[in-house]
Amino acid sequence: MWRGLSALATQAAWAPLRLCARCSTGAESLVPRSTIFALSSGQGRCAIAVIRTSGPASGLALRSLTALREPPPARKACLRLLRHPCSGEPLDRSLILWFPGPHSFTGEDCVELHVHGGPAVVSGVLQALGSVPGLRPAEAGEFTRRAFANGKLSLPEVEGLADLIHAETEAQRRQALRQLDGELSQLCQGWAKALTKALAHVEAYIDFGEDDNLEEGVLEQADRDVRGVEAALGSHLRDARRGQRLRSGANVVVTGPPNAGKSSLVNLLSQKPVSIVSSEPGTTRDVLETPVDLAGFPVLLSDTAGLREGVGAVEQEGVRRAHQRLEQADIILGVLDASDLASASSRSFLDTVVAPLVAQSHNSGGQRLLLLLNKSDLLSANAPACDTALPPHLLMSCHSGAGMDHLLQALKTELAVVCGDPTTGPPLLTRARHQYHLQGCLDALGHYQLATDLALAAEALRQARRQLNHLTGGGGTEEILDLIFQDFCVGK
Description:
Blueprint: H1 7-14, E1 35-39, E2 46-54, H2 58-66, E3 78-83, E4 90-99, E5 110-117, H3 119-130, E6 135-137, H4 142-149, H5 155-166, H6 170-180, H7 183-208, H8 218-237, H9 242-248, E7 250-255, H10 262-270, E8 288-294, E9 297-303, H11 313-328, E10 331-337, H12 344-364, E11 368-374, E12 394-395, H13 404-419, H14 432-445, H15 454-472, H16 478-485
């Protein structure tokens, strides 16, 4: 008989159908009330809609709608006619899939119904499931929450699944898939295992230090393990929030003197008319933002007012906001008019903005700068392309599109530095929660001093291990879980 059903529920599942509360008495109490169902595919008309259930009454639900006498083969699609369990009215011909627990997404008995995606069909099947005793509509994220509760997913894997659902760029998809595959969880579990082993050695030395039964060098080995974890934690925490930028988007700010082509560049990169383009200086007087997929990376692209001494109060405020946004930028696109490099506004921009950024990047690896010389189409064939005293730059034309490929490649390189490359290296920390718990673990290890007090060293290891358990979900509070699952849709 199908797994996951109690003996009474099994009798109800395979007895003659008297399942609707309106059609029977007493049957409803035979089935547990914790089975959920929902539409798992998108809303609206589509070719195929997927409806699924999870819980001990999933087998009963499938028996109710298909009148099957035996369970279908596990994890194999079968074509069956679905009928309403009360009226017997045909609903649709559906592919059905049976996933007996614990080998399912949630760890419980699950059913998937692949029906035609018309609203009337979907509504009819959902109403039919709602009439089966023991079934109720799922809440947002409840399927994934059950998978977490049943140990099918760790908390970072749950977060990876949420990020995968919301991924809008190729880099976000790759990073979310790595986290869903458990790379961050496995890394934390490895650190926790090393700390557990070190803790066992320290506690053994506390209990049996005077005996001859302990191997030599036990504390030295524990100390090496702890220092190795400490170094690895420090390395991950020095990633400059790259993973969080990859998840939420890097700030790319376009700046330069008036009429250099900043708004044209923003429109070209975003492929839509975000900013007004005019030959009149000072057209852009506020910060205009637009989310953009640049070379596969998520970016918040900002167009700013031309940097000059404002001729009015409004333009002066726009220039002030432009300077403020430059301080928050991860990457700065400095735009100059290639045909007007000798102007006072261009020289002022080079001296006051470009030169300090170049010096900063050389000294401390600060904000990234890409200097662009726009309007290359206005240069005469015999004129020099640019001033040789300029820092490294790219020559392009927003009007003709020349040089755009080189700009996108340069942006991809810079964004990979700022956001991290999701295809290589260790897994990135994509949420502030990850960074908080790893920092807490590192802080706890800061109190680990074997030479001072073995008992305090053991307590420091316990605290450090507890922080790693919180990260992977072993000690999370309900409030944290609610916050994580609130972004999931119904059916997931």
